[in-house]
Amino acid sequence: MSHPDPNDPGLLDATEVSLLSDLYELTMAASYHREGLDRPAVFELFVRHLPPHRSWLLAAGIGPALRLVSEMRFGKAELAYLREIGFEQDFLDYLADFRFSGEIAAMPEGSLCFAGEPLLRVTGPRIEAQLLETLLLNQVNFQTMVATKAARVVLAAGGGEPGHGDRVIDFSPRRDHGIDAAMKVARCAAIAGCAGTSNVAAAQRYGLTAMGTMAHSYVLSFRAELEAFRAFLRAFPDRGILLVDTYEIAQGVRTAIEAARETGAALRGIRIDSGDLESCARRARELLDEAGMTETEIIVSGDLEEVRIGELVASGARIDRFGVGTDLGTSRDSPVVNGVYKLVADADPDGEWRGVRKLSAEKETLPGPKQVFRRFSDGELAGDVVAAEGEATEGEPLLVPFMEGGEIVREETMEQMRARSGASLRSLPEHLRPPEPADSNYPVEISPRLRSSI
Amino acid sequence: MSHPDPNDPGLLDATEVSLLSDLYELTMAASYHREGLDRPAVFELFVRHLPPHRSWLLAAGIGPALRLVSEMRFGKAELAYLREIGFEQDFLDYLADFRFSGEIAAMPEGSLCFAGEPLLRVTGPRIEAQLLETLLLNQVNFQTMVATKAARVVLAAGGGEPGHGDRVIDFSPRRDHGIDAAMKVARCAAIAGCAGTSNVAAAQRYGLTAMGTMAHSYVLSFRAELEAFRAFLRAFPDRGILLVDTYEIAQGVRTAIEAARETGAALRGIRIDSGDLESCARRARELLDEAGMTETEIIVSGDLEEVRIGELVASGARIDRFGVGTDLGTSRDSPVVNGVYKLVADADPDGEWRGVRKLSAEKETLPGPKQVFRRFSDGELAGDVVAAEGEATEGEPLLVPFMEGGEIVREETMEQMRARSGASLRSLPEHLRPPEPADSNYPVEISPRLRSSI
Question: Is A58 helix (H, G, I), strand (E, B) or coil?
């Protein structure tokens, strides 16, 4: 008997994640097992349509998702629960020995991706491939959503352009959807080019730069702003960033300068979290420069996203860094990437691939395993072709092997993923850079062989 | 030295969750520690404004969040990392012995909550209370968002009304923001009144009903729809729910009837995932009734949310259950609950509370510990008063003790939380029931004593 606990904290270990699955994956798998239907099959993960307000996606989440796949096992507690809810012993015996043994190809993290393009392709025994569906979608959909949003914010802040460097910090943990989300948002933000994160656990786990300042409650905890600033600089003489808007902003900046002088600390930065950020930052810069603190950074925060950041940058505001929380972590203006995981081919008894397509109203699927080819012109995106796997096509193939025979064969460093994202963003033509027009379009063709198979 | 891994699956255990914190919580705490500033303080978690398209919130996430708080410890690896990024040994020694020793009061899960009302209040030594901020916001913000959305969907489906029962199933794991989100969405959906979830891990952990049907890929894996349906009913003769829209829907229903007759299975239900759900459900009901299968349920799915479900219910469509995924799990039309965690009082050296307020532009905070009182009229919500803690006020006090001296003193069963949600939703006056007018408003007053303290 399982012992449910309605207040359980909900943390799962690698084995428990095997049940992070829609029930139907398991019922379908049980039926396939019963019918002996376990020949190789191919599933592809893709979006049918781009989300509203998005003209491209930045693929993300593959690395951690494949680790979860490679560690996926059904332990005793999981098997006992499945027995309890009616699964038969034969199938439970199959699950007891489960481990994914197939192939996974994917667009590496930081790749640009468009509608209709598989961003991940699973080839393996049908039951195994079926059992990965929920976990892969759960991880790749939301991480691709977040990396895309982060990339838009980074672009707006001038990231990727020479001389601009990294200007965006992930401040999102308080608005992310739980613990796993907070970890992965920080990671996706880093892949997309952000400078660091306020999330200490993610900084530790992923080797990111932990960044932070102070809250208003800190300033309110002392009798005067000056006392608060002095105390903070005593504790952090080389990296104090002081929040100057608890009372009046210009006075807050003067007080920060005074506190730095008194304590002999280097004032690393000041943060402004309210008011008219442009004029406040301008005034703060004047005051800091007058005080000779030309190296002191100005950080702004408060419901920032790519449109507002773009306006601030265009205004010439003297802002060094943008702390972005809610909008980055939740992709508030477009909070869903609707990726699906569809059977596109299965092997007949002779081992020949048979393309599978679905005919439901408005939900057609192109049959057969696919590859995506991308052409560039003068370093800019020029057009993609979705082709049949193995079909000779001009351009760079985007899906590359990540797992073979159930083993991970490709893992990338953070530097590689960040470099790819940077190159991806630089390759965007002007009409695909935010704020892009609503009718911005990028040509994705279907290859002749694929078209003829419909 | 920490050993970061850019592809780590990101799973945290209870100890590792201690670093799921914005860096500034730790830097502020380190400074408080250095200054000996650790007298009791009160922090309150509340929203300043309701999110767009919401006229109330359903509080959720308290139970699991408080378990995480009660288990919060800094282990060796966490301390080593904090040392690495520059924290001093004195503070690390403090963290090594950390455990929360204070009080937490909260609105129990399933309570209705409005702007300006503390839904959770933490009283304890300042450093301890500060260190809970990120985790509490990370958990309570998104779970309250999801429970609110789920409650809206349940209301639209007629949940809570006599004779309607539970008609909504959580189908969201593939669109939820990661693993923790999927677990907590299923739990919040259950609290809000949903009938079950497709998420097997959440069903196991929280004692929910696991529900599922089949995917289009299952039907496409057989040479004919009839073969697929037969195979599924052979495996699940007492609980087969067949997806009938892979090819043509009316024919799919006929085929499902035929498969059930041939195999002698009870056809528990059919699912329709595309097309005009109202007319398709009507036709399906006719065909099933003609075949004598009056008990067979009709389940619909496909980008459903409260508006569409309300229309379907109003149309008199013969639908038994609604599978709701994306919109339930992401609260797509209003994907953020902007809860904040603010210092409202601290003890002076004599142990007297001193109200703390913040004056930043448009971000004022009312000083002092508070209580929320609610009045009813004929079972309907009649008005709330936010009062000073201890101020005699008419109505039912909503914040109740959950932790005392660091120990959890209140935990509720799923039945209690569901019952409270049901009562909450029944108490909503007509103008607060979705689809409510944009200017719907519920009176929340500030008590005389609290007003005089501003």
Answer: strand
Query: Is residue B180 located within the same domain as residue B88?
Result: no
Q: The domain spanning residue A303 has which CATH number?
A: 3.20.20.70
CATH number, domain of A43, equals: 3.20.140.10
Q: Which residues contact B318 (CB under 8 A, 6 or more apart)?
A: B281, B282, B284, B285, B298
Return the pLDDT at A161: 60
| Contact (CB<8Å) B31/A234 | yes
Choose among B10, B22, B232: nearest Cβ to A212: B22
Is the pLDDT score of A163 beyond 70? no
User: Do residues A285 and A386 share a domain?
Assistant: no
Q: How many domains does chain B have?
A: 2
Q: Cα angle vertex A96, ends A87, A134, to 5°?
A: 70
In a domain? residue A2: no
- In the numeric block, which tokens belong to residue A365? 């699927």
Distance from CA of A339 to the nearest CA of B (A): 8
Query: Which tokens hold the place of A262?
Result: 């008194």
Q: Do A266 and A183 belong together in one domain?
A: yes
Same domain? For B177 and B313 the reply is yes
Greatest Cα-to-Cα distance within chain A, rounded to the nearest angstrom: 82
Q: Which whole number is the average pLDDT over B204-228?
A: 94
Tell me, yes or no, whether A33 and A100 share the same domain: yes
Residue A308 has pLDDT above 70, yes or no: yes
Q: Which domain holds residue A141?
A: 16-146+334-452
Instruction: Verify that A428 and A400 share a domain, yes or no.
Output: yes
- Identify the residue among A34, A138, A249, A337 best suited for mutation to test binding to B, counting B beta carbons within 10 A and taking the highest: A138
- Chain A environment of B44 (Cβ under 8 Å): none
Count residue pairs from A and B with Cβ separation < 8 A.
416
Structure ipTM: 0.96
A 10 A CB-CB count for B188 gives 31
Sequence-ordered list of residues with C-beta below 8 angstroms from that of A83, at least 6 positions apart, any chain: A89, A92
Q: Could you tell me if A302 and A173 lie in one domain?
A: yes
Tokens found for residue A427: 């390759």
For the beta sheet containing A444-446, the strands, ordered from the edge strand earlier in sequence to the opposite edge, are A396-397, A370-377, A380-388, A444-446
Each residue's pLDDT tens digit, B147-172: 999 999 999 998 656 545 589 999 99
Residue at a domain's end among B330, B352, B379: B330
| SS3 at position B317 | coil
Minimal-distance CA residue of chain A relative to B228:
A31
In a domain, A3, yes or no: no
Q: Please indicate, yes or no, whether residues A405 and A262 belong to a single structural domain of this protein.
A: no
Instruction: List CB contacts of B334: < 8 A, sequence separation 6 or more.
Output: B51, B52, B53, B54, B145, B149
Global confidence as pTM: 0.97
Q: What are phi and psi of B260, to 5 degrees?
A: -65, -40
| Final residue belonging to a domain, choices A298, A330, A362 | A330
Report the alpha-carbon distance of residue B154 to residue B148 in Å, rounded. 10
How many residues in chain B?
A: 454
Helical pair A23-35 and B225-235, crossing angle rounded to 10 deg: 100
Q: In this predicted model, what pLDDT tens digit does every residue of A118-138 receive, in sequence order?
A: 999 999 999 999 999 999 999
Helix axes A76-84, A89-96, angle to 10 degrees: 160
